[in-house]
Structures are given as C-alpha cells and as structure tokens.
Amino acid sequence: MSAVVAQSLHAFGLRSHVANNIFFFDEQIIIFPSGNYCVKYNMDQKWQKFIPGSDKSQAMLALSISPNRRYLAISELVQEKPIITIYELSAIPCRKRKVLSNFDFPVQRFTSMAFSPDSKYLLAQSSPPESNLVYWLWEKQKVMAMIKTDAQNNTVYQVSFSPQDNTQVCVTGNGMFKLLRFAEGTLKQTNFQRGEPQNYLAHTWVSDDKIVVGTDTGRLFLFESGDQRWETSIMVKESTSVLKNLEMMHESESLIEFPTLSSPVPSFEQILETNGHSQQSMPQVFAIASYSKGFACSAGPGRVLLFEKMEEKDFYHESREIRIPVDLQSNDPSQSDKQDILCLCFSPSEETLLVSTSKNQLYSITMSLTEISKGEPAHFEYLMYPLHSAPITGLATCIRKPLIATCSLDRSIRIWNYESNTLELYKEYQEEAYTISLHPSGHFIVVGFADKLRLMNLLIDDIRSFKEYSIRGCKESAFSNGGHLFAAVNGNVIHLFTTTSLENITNLKGHTGKIRSIVWNADDSKLISCGTDGAVYEWNLSTGRRETECVLKSCSYNCVTVSPDGKIIFAVGSDHTLKEIADSSVLREIPTFDVVYTAIVVSHSGRMIFVGTSVGTIRAMKYPLPLPKEFNDYQAHGGPITKMFLTFDDQFLLTVSEDGCLFTWKVFDKDGRGIKREREVGFAEEVLVTKTDMEEKAQVMLELKTRVEELKMENEYQLRLKDMNYSEKIKELTDKFIQEMESLKTKNQVLRTEKEKQDVFHRERMDDLLDRQTRELQDLECCNNQKLLLEYEKYQELQLKSQRMQEEYEKQLRDNDETKSQALEELTEFYEAKLQEKTGLLEEAQEDVRQQLREFEETKKQIEEDEDREIQDIKTKYEKKLRDEKESNLRLKGETGIMRKKFSSLQKEIEERANDIESLKGEQMKLQGVIKSLEKDILGLKREIQERDETIQDKEKRIYDLKKKNQELEKFKFVLDYKIKELKKQIEPRENEIKVMKEQIQEMESELERFFKQNTQLELNITELWQKLRATDQEMRRERQKERDLEALVKRFKTDLHNCVAYIQEARALKEKVRGLFEKYVQRADMVEIAGLNTDLQLEYSRQREHLERNLATLKKKVVKESELHRTDYVRIMQENVSLIKEINELRRELKFTRSQVYDLEAALKPTKKFQQQEAPEAGPSEATHRIAPTMRLNEQEEMGRIIEMQRREIQSLRDQIQEQEQVPGFHAIGGVRLPSLGSRIQSIVKLDTEVPNK
C-alpha cells in the first residue's frame, strides 16, 4: 500500500435526495449524509466524525436509525447491486455490525427502511417493478417474511413499525395505505382502503394504533386501527411579513446569521415525477414527525405547521407556523424561502426541531421560541451555514489566508475558512458561475460567469466586482503563483491579463478543441494546458509560443498538473491512464483500473500525488509513481470529482464534486518524511473595507451615540419619578411593619411562658428515661459477657486450624519447587515431540475441519430451532426460581441482622489475623512471579523455533526463484547473442552510406566557397554605388540650404510689404516705403545674372538626377535577382546538410541503443555467473560464452573509435575553412539574410561523439 494517507477532516454539504437524511444521535449530535459519508456533527462543539460508505459505492439511497440510537442502517448501490450495511454507533469508531448483500429474491434498490422498537428486526422496501417489503431478523441475516406491496408498479415512499409492537407495520405510497401484521411467518394486511386512493407521501405513528398521513394535495388524515377518524386540509398562506423580515435582516449585524426522530422521507425527484400533473398551488406534505404534544408536518414550500392534540377530543388543531427565513444574499430574495422541506426531526428532549430542504440546506429552531411568538409565524435559522445546492464547478485556495473559494451551478460564490471550518462570505448572482480563482493574498477573486469574466474584491461583508471582461462562458481560470498575472480560458484560446494594469497581455492560440485545464509552473514562466483535442501544450510566456507539445487525439484530457521543478507534466483523461510527460514525449502510462481520472494534483514537496475519479473516489500515491495498485483509495464523494487542490503548506487536501459537497482532508506520510512546511509568517488577518462603508458606519455610530444620550436623559427622568413613588410606598410600609412588630412582641411573651412550662415537663420525663436505660444496660452487659466467652472459645479453635493450614501450605511450596524443575524438562521434551506430530496432524485436521464445517452448518440450523424452544422452557424455570429465591432472601435478611451484631465483635480479632495472612500472601506472590518468568522463557523459546522454521522456508523459496531466474536469463542471453550478430550485419552498409554522405558534404562546401567569392564581388559594387549616393546627398543638402535662405528672404519681404499696406491711404508715405523696399531687395545687374544662372543650374540638376535614378533602379534589380539566386542555392545546400546530419545522429543513437542493451545483458548475466560458480561447477560452457561477449565488445569499440577519429578530423578541417572565409573582408550576410553558423551544429556532433565512447 501507498505511504501517503488522507484523513477526512470536515465536510461542507448535504445530500438531500437520500431518504430520511437527518436525525439525532443524542441531544447534541446529529447524523446526516454528505458525499459518500454519514457525518456525526456536534452542534455545540462544532466537530465532525465520519461513518464511511461501502467500497465502490455508487449512491446512498436511504438511512434509518434504531429507536435505542445504537444502530444505523444505510442502503447503497455497489456495482449496480443493492447493499444494506448496519453500523454500531456506540463503538468508537463506528464499526460495521452486519452487511446484507446476498439476496434470494430479485431487487434493484431499497428506497426505505425502518427498525423495530426493540431494534432486532429491520423493514426494507424495494423499488418497482419488484416492490417487495422484506421483514428481516438482521443479526442472523434471516428473512422472516416478504410480501409484494403493490402490483401496479406504484412507488412506495415510506415504511415504519408501530412504536410499541414489533409485528405491526405501516406502508404508504402512491395510491397506497396499508397496515400489515406479522404472524406465523407471513405479513397480512389488516385494513381495507375506502374512498378514492390518494398519493400518500409521508406518515407518522402518534400512538400505538393511531397514524397521521399526509398527501400531495395538502390533506392530513388520522387513522385508528385502519379506520379514518379525522381529516383536515392545509391552506396555502402567503407570507404577509416578507418586508418586515427583510428589514429585520438588514438591521442584523452580520452578513449571514449562523446558528448558535425524523420520519423517513421519499426521494424528492421521485415524487416530482409522480406528481408532475398536480397543481403547483397545492401544498405537498413531504414529511411528518410526531412529538409528545402532537405532530409537525411540512405544508408547502418553506413552511412547517405544528398540530397539538385537543384536550376533550382525540382530534388535532393547528397551533403554530414556522417558516424558512428570506435570504438577502440570494439573487431573488422573495423566492429564497420557497424550498420544499423533505425531512423533519425532533431532538430526544423535543427542545429543537431540525429540517432539511430540497436545496441541500439544514435549518433548526428551538421549540421554546415557537411558544414566545404569538400570532406571527416563527422562523428557522441555519444549523451551520448556507450550503451549495448544485454541482460545484470551481475551487481555489490562497497562500496568505486559510480560505477556500467555491462556485457552483446554483449561481453562488462562497468563501470558506478551513482553519475554523466556517463560511466567511456568500453571495448569489443572476448567472451561473463555471470557474473561480483566488489571488495568493486572499483579497481578490476571478470568476467566470456565463455572460462575463469578473474580477472581484473580497470585502469584510461583501463580494464586489471592480473589472469585467467580455469573455462568455469561461470554464477555467487561474492566478499565477506570484499573483501578478491571471489566465482565463475562452473556448480554445487562453487570455493572459496583468493584475496591475488589468490589461490583456497576450492570447495563447493552438488548441483545436475546448481547453479543460490550465496550470502555472512554480516560477510563473510557463503555463501548461490540456484539452478535449488530446493535446498537452507547455507555453513560454515571454515569447507567447509553445515550448513542448504532446498530442494524442484518441484521448480527451480532463486535468493537467506539473511537478514543483517544472520538468514533468502529469495528465489524466478519458483513456483510463495517468500520463507522465517530459520533453514532448510520454515517459510512463499508469493504468487506472476501469476508472476515469477527472482531477489530479501534486504536492509542493513533490512526494505526493492525489487523483480524483469519475466515481467520487480519491487515490493517494507517492512519487516517484509506484507499481500498479500501490495506492490508497478513499470513497469520498457521491459523484465525479470536479476539482482538487492542496494548500500551500501541503497540510490539507481540498476536493469538490458534482454532488455539491466540499471536503477537507488531513494529509499524512507513513514513511515519517516531513510533510509540514513551517510557515515563517502566520496567516494574514487584514480585511478589505471600502471608504464609503467606513463613512456610513461612522455616521451610524454617531446616530447611535446621540440616541443613547437621549435614552439616558429619559431614563434619569423616569428614575426620579420612580424614586418619588417608591419613597411614599416605603413610608406606608414602615408604618404597617411597626404595628405588626408590636403585635408580634406580645405573641412572643405568651410563647415564652408556655416554653418554660414545657421545659419543666421535659426534665422530669428525661430523669425517668435515664433510670430505665441504666437498668437495661446492666442486663445487656451480663448477656454479652456470656456470648463473648463462647466466641473466644471458637476463636481458639480457628487459630489452631490456621496454624495447621500454614504448615501444609509450606510443605506444598517445597514440593512444587522440586516438581517444577522436573516438569519443565519433561515439557520441553514432550512439546518437541508434539510439534513433530502436530505438523503431520495439521493436514489431517484441515480435511476434518472442512467436513466439520459442513456438519456445523447443518447442526447450526437445528440448534437455532432447538434454542428457541429451550429459551422458552428456561424462562419458565427461572421465573419459578426467582420467586423461591425472593422468599428465601426475605428470611435471610432477618437472620443477617442478628449475625451482623455478632460479626462486629469478631471482626476486630479477624483483622489482626488478616495482617499475618497478608505477609504470607506477599511471599506467595514472589513465588508466582518466578513461575511466570519461567513460563515466559518457554514461550520465547517456542517463538524462536517458529521464526527459524519460517526463515528456512523463505530461503528455500528464494533459492527456487533464483534458479528460475537463471534459466530465464540463459534464454535471454541466447536471443541477444543472435540479435548482436544481426546488428553487426546492419552496421556495415550504414558505414558505406556515411562515406558517400561525406563526399557529398565536400562537394557542397566547394559550392559554398564559390558563392562566397561572388558575394565579395557584389559587395564591392554596392560600396561604389553608396559613394555615388553620398555625393548626390551632399548636393541635395546645398540646394536645400539655398531654398531655406530664399524662403527667409521672402518672409522678410512679406513682413516689410505688410508694413507698407498700413500707409495705403497716404500716397507719399507709401511711395517712400516702396522705394525703400526696391533699394533693399532689388539690383538690376544681379537680377539678370541670377535669372540666367538659376535656369542653367536647374536643367543640369534635373539631368543628373534622372541619370542617377536610372542607375540605381538597374542596380537594385540586379541585387534582388542575385540575392534570390543565392537564397535558393543556400537553402538547398542547408536542407541537404541537415538531412545528412539527421541520418548521422540516427545511426549514432542506434549504436548507443545496441551498446546499452549489450551492457545491460552483461550486467544481468554477472550475478547468474557467480551463482553458477558457487552451486554448480559443471557450468563450464556458459563461462566461455561470457568471455566471448566482452572481447566482441572491445573489437566493436575499436572500430567505432576509428570512425569517430576520422569524423573529428573532417570536422576540424571544416572549422579551419570557415575561419579562413570569415577573415576575408566584406564576408557578411546578403540582403539582410544571415547565414547560420555551422560551428554550433559541429560542436553538438563532437559532444555526441565524445559521449558515446565514454558510455
């Protein structure tokens, strides 16, 4: 078995479809089903203990507890077969008492069960089409009677015993109400149904012969001895105080108000199927439970009615109403209390009432509170906390806080604390939640809803969204280990976001099917994903590309995880294997043994692996992965496990399932290796609070303070008024008391006089009594003296007897010492002889035992029948004896009173003798200690003999196994010798191919040299063209400078002209300004010269520019053509080179593989060789064959060494040529394309060559 152990710690969930799913074990402990366990929960101390279901259990169907609270019966399906397991609850831990599994009658499942009042018999009702009611004497697994309850395949919801009669049974179902009586080995119906048949959902026994039954139409019937006595209908009352409840819940301080034998219930789904045609408005009575004052019943969604018995009549009237409270955290608070109540249960003292609902919730109420609430209905409270009511789809945990985050298809998010086992936060939404991830700090969560992906804050009393992404139906999300990134899956694409700027960094695309699982490695540099397309990809987040991939299209993966060092990936899927993947290849495939793995997690220490299955079991394995079936299986959940996580310190395992339950497990290691990782810092206690909430609370505090001050003023005023009233009353009372005191004084004086008279009378009476007593004492002394003389004579006789006994005892001790030593020697010889005889007799005894077992089974049946008769006869005898002994006891009591007086006088003398006897007993104890030590020595010698016999047998077995192995290895050796010869033949043609390849490489290298020379010529041409281009650039710069100067001159002229426009109305001033402009900017001789020069320059510039552009265009075309030619030739050469290198590497791998096989075989043959030399010196030919093998290997090594040296020389020549070509000036990449260096490839080849001979 595996060394890894997981122990169930706490369960958060309820399976409401189990019939009779809640009941009290005692006043504080309740039992309810969760996952595939029954949970014992202490309501005061908040601890849980678990009663595990059967191995390979598929579903838990019904529960029943015995009236004495000692036994628990569980109905299950195990591998499509029904089983009833009976546990003994008084044992610690609870142990299986009986398992009822082999049935002589056809049965699919048992839907309802009940124990008899004396807990000896068990009723079990099977499902249609059989519908058999079985009456068991369960301790002997004996079917006392069986009857088919219904021939029309109608469902039976509940069976029960009468509370006082083992033989009276009640059965209710669809159109069925039957009272049966067990008599003469059969069950016979005692009532007849009258009127229209009803769909009877539940019933309870109110007294020995009275039963209350409820229907799906809200009607209640009281039957007495099978006849109807009373009937009433439950009316639907809509809650008028919903708004009041909402206000009261708003005023409450906390977000969720946690709370500081039932009748069996039918399957909720089964009832809905049969009642699909019924009207929604009719309240259905799913559960009824009786108590001392009357009974309680469910009356429609979220409603329980209490009925009490009327004093004058035998009828019942409705006394109180209890409702499920409105939940403010629900997405629709008005509908949150509309839950069908499936099971009711009163505590043994009838102080509390428990309720389970169709939404997997548990509620409780103290019965004293129902009496306080007058008129208005009372309200239930959560027994523990609100639980999930649908399959849980998401699970997450963090590092800094002991928190668990879950989301479910019930549209809720819940934050649990696994340290205190409580619910921290809870909120419902409009959309279903598919995935959840918790930030390592514990302050944020990412939730994937059906419509959007939301990033939320975990506040002190709320969960608030602060960022939304338009990713619909996100099924997987995960924060990185550092918390700076988070990934979200959208179909077959992974989106990466930062938690700082909340932006989308990259999208990882590559999967063709839906992604089912993602996981980060330890340093957050890589992300591993798997999907339904059978692909497992490892993504490098710095480049956004796949580093490794492993695709197996026949497998649809469910979950993936990675080892702490990030080297090995573990994946599970639909192909019934656990895959160990490394470097894009599957290292190992471990079978799952007919189970589909749905989830997998590896511990942070890397020593443990936990796997969840499709049947709800958990498997704990150690790493490295063990041999097949070396793991621990735990039957945890009642459905496929959806998610699993380990806490950061590897202390706790967390699992969730489709059954809506969350389990926490404590993880242990049997090998003693430390799992616990010591925390340097404790869990954080910080909580997020918004500024607005703080301001609101501060304002509320101020208002409350002002209100308190006002109340103080009012109270002081009222106290003054009360003081005034009380002072007046005190005066009146003092007057009354003074009058009464005077009257009492007079009475006291009268009583004193009477007392004095009585004292005188009593003194006279006492004197008379004392005289009488002295006379009687004298008479008694005389009588006692005579008795003492008689007793003293008896004492002397007893003393003589004790001396004789002591002497005889000393003689016996001496004789025993002598006989003991002789007996020991005789016993050792006798038992050694006996051991030899008994080994021979053992075989005969085994045959006798088989025959005796057959005879025992036959006699057992006869004895059981005889015992029943004898028990009745013995009862009559012992009853007579009891009467006789009671009469004799009365006589003896009278005699003992007389003897006690005599005994008291003798007891003093006996105590003195007892001290002497105790000293003798001390010596006796010492002698007994010596005897015991000798007996222990004998037992030790016997054990040594047995152990030596066992060791001899083990060694003989080992010798036999080694001989077998030796024969097998000789066969392997013959086969491998033949294979080695064949491989040698295959190596020779490959060597010829290598030579041909080398010639091709040389030719390709000569072509490369030609290409390099052409490249140098082209580069010289390019340099010349660049020089021409630089000259034209310089000319262009000069022209641009001239243009800039002209533009500046034009700007200046424009500004001066703009100034002249101001004088447009004054002709003289304007004329002077224009003249000034002319003198400043224009000179006639210059104008003519400039105009001529400008035209010539422009023509020359345009002509040269066109000529240069044509030359450039032709050169560019030439360069492009030549570069394309060079590229095609280079690519062809490189492809040929790569193919040749690949072939060389493959040949080297084959050589390595053959050498490793030969080396392994030689290593395997060495121990056999030694063994043969020790045992059989005749094995001469085998030694010769062993000697031939290493010589063969040496010849091969020499040949391979020569080949490798030749290859090294060729590689060195290639390196020298490359260095020479690199030294040539102008040798670099053509057209921006860089030639890959052959140095790295050649170095890798050289490394491989050097590694081969070393190995």
From TrEMBL:
Its main location: cytoplasm. It comes from Pipistrellus kuhlii. GO terms for cellular component: axoneme. It is found in: Cytoplasm, Cytoskeleton, Cilium axoneme. This is Cilia- and flagella-associated protein 57. May form homodimers. Associates with components of the nexin-dynein regulatory complex (N-DRC) and the CFAP184:CFAP263 complex. Keywords: Cell projection, Cilium, Coiled coil, Cytoplasm, Cytoskeleton, Flagellum, Repeat, WD repeat. Associates with components of the nexin-dynein regulatory complex (N-DRC), a key regulator of ciliary/flagellar motility, and might act as an inner dynein arm (IDA) hub or linkage. Residues 795-1049, 1098-1164 form a coiled coil. Residues 393-667 form the EML-like second beta-propeller domain. InterPro entries: Beta-prop_EML-like_2nd, CFA-57, Quinoprotein_ADH-like_sf, WD40/YVTN_repeat-like_dom_sf, WD40_repeat_dom_sf, WD40_rpt. WD repeats lie at residues 385-426, 508-549.
